[in-house]
Amino acid sequence: MLSALAAAVVTVFAAGCAWCYMSEPADAQKSALLAYIVENQVTHARLLPTPSTHAFSYPTLAFLVSLDALEARSLDLARGWLFGYGGTSWRVTGLRSAAYLAQERKKAEAGIKEKLREVLEQFGHDSRRVGGVWMLTMPSYMGYEGINPLTVYYCYDSSEGGERLVWVVLEIHNTFGEKHVHVLETGVGEDEDCPPGFDHQWTFAREFHVSPFNDRLGHYRVSVNAPPAPSSSSSALSSSPPRPKVRIHLHAAPSSADANAAGLVGPLKLTATLFARRAVPLTSANLLRALARYPLALFLSFARILYHAWILHYVKRLDVFPRPDPKPAMRAWGLPLPRAVLSPTAAEGDEDEAARRRAHGGIGWQDEGPLEAYARRVVERFLARRAEELGVGVVLESGDPSMPRRVFVPSSTSPEDRLVIRYAARRFFPTLLLAPCAAHMLLVGTAEDLFRVSSEELFVRVFAGGAWPRMSWVQSLRLSLLPKRFARRPSQVPPRHPLDEGWGFLNALVVCLVHTGDILEKTVFTCLKARFVPGLEPWGRWERAAMLLRDDQ
């Protein structure tokens, strides 16, 4: 039986090779030099803490493709069935634009190179200089699009013959569906010393949550080599195929003594190295051979992550850091907004506003869930009404660039006062529903660094509870589900929550569902004997907020 199955597989493979070979266009030889199948070896090593040292290595398959050739579809194989650009369904391997860079709906389907230009512009660079671009990434396989931990874009200058590497853009994905980019410019901010075998090296602060066994502190030291530009002569590429190499060192946060010494980073904590053992042109025959050699490589990324996470947690005894909210994507997220923003016509911004919102690295957030969407609608309707009642302007600004800014102003007068609320994540909206009053909202916002306001006094005024003869049942439910300290001074809690008008029953349902989710999460972790870093448990956010309450309030 097994011999018959093996013979059938060989027959299908041989037939596929023959059909794909016959399907190749006449210019396949030229196109093959603009795309390569890269057989990588990836090595990880954890050095700190010493009792939890761990190392492993594994092979991966990746594609190194010219973005111009990819988006012109000149790299498609077997009429797009074996490899194609634009989708993953009904293809053996594929790449699609929506999986990379900007995730806003209006931008997600734009070309990858167009989105890459936009990222460079948002980081303050002149995207008109972009010429040829190599993209190093893992494709989808049999319709399965696994996690792509690291995608590297090598951007070459459009002038000077297109041979000079100008930017290296690192796009990082984590297992929570979030994305982050680092834009590294050659000759700018580079380390003085570059290790042998590499052409460029940069050291910069860590900003993105990747591993649950690390906090978000420390510095990355990234070393890369520069493959020949896509515009290089065919003879150069054919005689020496590009073999990219990337090395990432994570240094822990320095001690106070080290911090006083200029230019020092903390001790080396983690290393990760990706180097190409072999690179061959992307042709039908080469791709089929590579898939036959590594039939499961493109399926195993997530499974491998889970396996080594199990080792680190249960064998090496490392506790889990909870996922923090992504850092806001705009460098000026914490700076005052110009008064012109209170004009509804300025909600989308202009050139000055685009400069103010210049990207900081975050480009992908988790999708909005149904509870978050409901809570957002409740809050937005409430703010629209309160802007009219109080004659104030209110601005809601997200750290997620895919969430549009919302501006609420009275229709009849120009507001004298304005309240700016900047929130880091969409869970901000359900949090407002769970907190019994405005003061408690500010407490949890401070404890979790979930949101910031331009004026606490105006925030309390906008979210003041309405007059009500006695405590509503929804408000009583809220207090019963929170630490008792929140109810210690009932005179501070309004009888009715400001967001409950017209939404009492549904709000109560959301409150119960959110608390039930916390209970289930705690139960699952307890059953699995999994451990968070003490004091950082996600279900303990209200206890952490209660710690900020003073007994004399």
From TrEMBL:
Keywords: Signal. Residues 1-28 form the signal peptide. It comes from the Eukaryota. InterPro entries: DUF1365. It holds the Pfam family DUF1365. This is DUF1365-domain-containing protein. It comes from Polyporus arcularius HHB13444.
